[in-house]
Amino acid sequence: MVYAIVRASGRQEKVSVGDFVTLNRVPGGAGSTFELPALLLVDGEKITSAVEDLAKIKVTAEILEDLRGPKIVIQKFKNKTGYKVRKGHRQELTKVKITSIA
């Protein structure tokens, strides 16, 4: 089982070839590819975490689609002052497929 821990959109994700991952919005259209920096590589029994070795590793992902996350409702209220605020937010996301770890 080969997998890698990569830095993606300010977070760390565990990925292997063929995985579908949802990240914060990545520039580029559907069908384009980009690389993710590897932080750790596990290849069967061998674990690679040295910076020199990880610089040679390329984790390639293909953009499948851009989408938006679920709506989050933000409400603020202060008693006896008439202050009420209701806001909503939907995060811009991108669904990607991990195509290779080499």
In words, what does this structure look like?
The protein is mainly beta and about 100 residues long. The protein is built from one helix and ten strands, in the order ββββββαββββ. It has a four-stranded antiparallel beta sheet with strand order 2-1-5-6. It has a four-stranded antiparallel beta sheet with strand order 3-10-7-4, with no helix packed on it. A two-stranded antiparallel sheet has the order 8-9. The chain is elongated. The model has no long low-confidence stretch (mean pLDDT about 95).
What labels describe this entry?
single chain, mainly beta, about 100 residues, 1 helix, four-stranded antiparallel beta sheet, 10 strands
Can you give the helix content as a percent range?
A: under 10%
Beta-strand level of the residues, as a percent range? over 45%
Strand order of the largest sheet: 2-1-5-6
Q: How confident overall, as mean pLDDT?
A: 95
**What Rg is obtained from the alpha carbons, in whole angstroms?**
19 Å
What's the β-strand tally? 10
Order of helices and strands: EEEEEEHEEEE
Amino- and carboxy-terminal Cα gap: 14 Å
- What ranges have pLDDT less than 50 throughout 5 or more consecutive residues? none
What's the main sheet like? Answer: 4 strands, antiparallel
Derived from helix and strand composition plus strand pairing, the structural class reads mainly beta
Number of helices: 1
What spatial form do the alpha-carbon principal axes imply? elongated
